[in-house]
């Protein structure tokens, strides 16, 4: 029998798919405190305004808001602290080259549990212009209308 990896998505960044052209997805671990992981498991996390930076060949995530754990008392964490992401050095250097040369941004797309460990998926993103956003809205509306028409004709 095969062991299937159980993945439970906790937070998704739908705003990233609308505002950026995403490519080169990478799975990273996150350095978290105890109250942070408990709060994330209770869906008390927001990554819609978050972004990643590379400093001294280390990958960090900024503006990731993890709500304070309600049962954490005095041992609670700072909600907006800078958190370190865990990835291989070669992967970080490859991402750094793309960010510097091609003007990409590192965007977190989702946070999930994999084999009991909290992982984050980041992607290289290139900002969309206003007309690209309008085009994606139009495509989404057209596909919805087609699906409604097909369903109505059955």
Instruction: For the largest sheet, list the strands in their spatial order.
Output: 1-8-9-2-7-5-4
CATH class: Mainly Beta
CATH homology group: Small protein B
How many helices in DSSP terms?
Answer: 4
Q: In oligomeric terms, what are we looking at?
A: single chain
Number of domains: 1
Proper CATH architecture: Beta Barrel
Q: Per CATH, what is the topology?
A: Small Protein B, Chain: A
For the secondary structure, the number of strands is 9
Ends apart, CA distance between termini: 41 Å
Task: Give me the Rg, rounded.
Answer: 18 Å
Secondary structure category: alpha+beta
Residues in β-strands, percent: 35-45%
Overall spatial form: globular
Q: Describe the sheet with the most strands.
A: 7 strands, antiparallel
Arithmetic mean pLDDT: 89
Q: Could you walk me through the main structural features you see in this protein, from its secondary elements to its overall organization?
A:
The chain has one domain: Beta Barrel (Small Protein B, Chain: A). Helices cover 34% and strands 36% of the residues. It is built from four helices and nine strands, in the order βαβαβββββαββα. It has a seven-stranded antiparallel beta sheet with strand order 1-8-9-2-7-5-4. A two-stranded antiparallel ribbon has the order 3-6. It starts with 6 loop residues before the first strand and ends with a helix. The mean pLDDT is 89.
């Amino acid at each position: 029998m095969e062991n299937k990896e159980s993945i439970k998505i906790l937070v998704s960044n739908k705003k990233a798919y609308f505002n950026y052209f995403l490519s080169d997805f990478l799975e990273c671990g996150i350095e978290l405190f105890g109250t942070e992981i408990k709060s994330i498991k209770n869906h008390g996390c927001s990554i819609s305004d978050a972004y990643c930076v590379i400093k001294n060949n280390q990958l960090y995530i900024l503006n990731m808001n993890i709500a304070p754990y309600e049962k954490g008392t005095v041992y609670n964490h700072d909600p907006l602290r800078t958190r370190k992401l865990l990835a291989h050095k070669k992967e970080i250097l490859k991402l750094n080259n793309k960010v510097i040369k091609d003007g990409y941004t590192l965007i977190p797309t989702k946070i999930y549990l994999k084999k009991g460990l909290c992982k984050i998926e980041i992607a290289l993103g290139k900002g969309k212009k206003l007309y690209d956003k309008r085009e994606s809205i139009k495509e989404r509306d057209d596909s919805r209308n087609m699906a409604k028409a097909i369903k109505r004709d059955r």
